[in-house]
Amino acid sequence: MIKTYAKSTMLLLCFMLLMGMLVACSGDEGAAGGDAEASDGNTVKIGALFDITGGTGDVGTPYSEGEKAYYEYLNSQGGIDGVQVELIGDDYAYDMAKGQRLYQELRDKDNVSAILGWGTADTEALRQQVANDQLPYFSASYSENLKNLEESPYNFLTAATYSDQGRAVVQWIKENHEGDNPTLALLYNDTAFGRSPIEDIKAYAAEVGVEVVDEQVIPVTATEAQSQMLNMQEAAPDYAIIQQTWGATATILREAQTLGIDTQFIGLNWATGEGVVEIAGDAAEGMLGVVTHAFPYEDLEGLAEMEEYLESKGESLEDVSQKFVQGWVTAKIMAEGIGNAEELNGEGIRKGIEQIKDMDLGGLAAPVTFSEDNHAGTNQVRLAEVKNGKFEVITDYFSYED
User: Fold this and answer.
1) Higher per-residue pLDDT: 127 or 18
2) Of 100, 170, 271, 291, which residue is least crowded by CB atoms under 10 Å?
3) Domains of the chain by start residue, with CATH
């Protein structure tokens, strides 16, 4: 009897050990985002990396608020065909190491099915993991590198890349400049975000006959940039493209006003928006900016849902900025992909996003299209100019290929 019991106990222990090993293996698969268990059929979990307190928090904060607001609104309207969206995110303060840890937590602990990311450096560093984990990834970075499907098969771009924005600006300069051949300066920060479009802009400028005569590196958190602006003043460029966020852009404009520089400044998308005008004041007057997403004060059909949501919170469109719109639109495109998905897991959502064709965003952004061969949704932008303390759109959507 004792021998039989011991033998049975040994068999039971072996069975339990085997089951433990199987559970451990299945846990690894679940972390890969391709497991259907990432959704219970009634809820789909989306992870998010926010920059609230880091170097780009000036634009990151309203962007994150727009993402959160859209899913709250969507859930109040019944979700995606009855499926509720649970957005799980945190502030990683524009710190790559923190971003890596947060990504792993979202994948392993929260078992999310897709990610809404933020910065260029962390997005590019995570590309291989994202691919291995089969997690569709919408970043707020519009780095040209993310177009490469061999290296970034699960990354999607929801707006024109920084390089495409820069090329469009250079084309606009070439077509609209009066007088001799135009000259150009490039003002950017020494981060992956800041450097991202620089070589592409220089190459395209050389191709179309716009001479780059100066480059100045200015920290993304700069509160003064007098030495850099003095250097630029010596080169006397007709135009200067700014690849910064609101704070550093305002610093550049204030320094230029103090020094009496009459260069035409043109900000790429993160340099553009209400915040730069609020910080720079009248120094922002006449600045041009690339517009990838609508201003909340435009008369557009797509703002109706946002207005309805804000009114439910006792707020109005006057209480939000263009970067709020940008976050809202990004979350909306992800929801469209989820709605197309046959399975609510990473692979299913990726295929769902690839089915999006000419998605009409009601004017909030250019229509987006994705496919198996193309994860860059659009290359179209508009331009706006600060007039009487407010950005006014001065072009229709266009791209440098037009």
Assistant:
1) 127
2) 100
3) 36-160+297-371 (3.40.50.2300), 162-291+383-393 (3.40.50.2300)
For residue 150, the Cα-to-chain-centroid distance in whole angstroms is 20
Specify the DSSP class assigned to residue 377. -
* Spatial strand order in the sheet of 43-50: 84-91, 43-50, 114-116, 137-138, 155-156
Backbone φ and ψ for 238, nearest 5 degrees, come out as -70, -35
* Per-residue tokens: 8: 């049975």
Q: Which residue has the tokens 């009409």?
A: 360
**Mean pLDDT across the chain:** 92
At residue 39, the pLDDT reads 54
Q: Residue 324 is which amino acid?
A: F
Which secondary structure element, helix H or strand E, spans residue 48, and what is its range?
Answer: strand 43-50
b (16+ CB within 10 A) / e for 80-100: beebebebebbbbbbbeebbb
How remote is the C-alpha of 169 from its chain's centroid?
A: 19
Q: What is residue 33's three-state secondary structure?
A: coil
At 9, list the tokens: 């106990």
185's enclosing H/E stretch is strand 183-188
CB 53 within 8 A of CB 221: no
| Other residues' Cβ atoms within 10 Å of the Cβ of residue 68 | 18
- The DSSP code for 258 is H
pLDDT exceeds 60 at position 228: yes
CB-based contacts of 376-379 (< 8 A; 24+ apart in sequence): 376/146, 376/147, 376/157, 376/161, 377/156, 377/157, 377/158, 377/159, 377/333, 378/158, 378/159, 378/160, 379/160, 379/161, 379/164, 379/168
Q: What pLDDT is recorded for position 216?
A: 98
Tens digit of each residue's pLDDT (9 = 90 or more) over 275-313 = 999 999 999 999 999 999 999 999 999 999 999 999 999
| 63 confidence band (pLDDT: 50, 70, 90) | very high
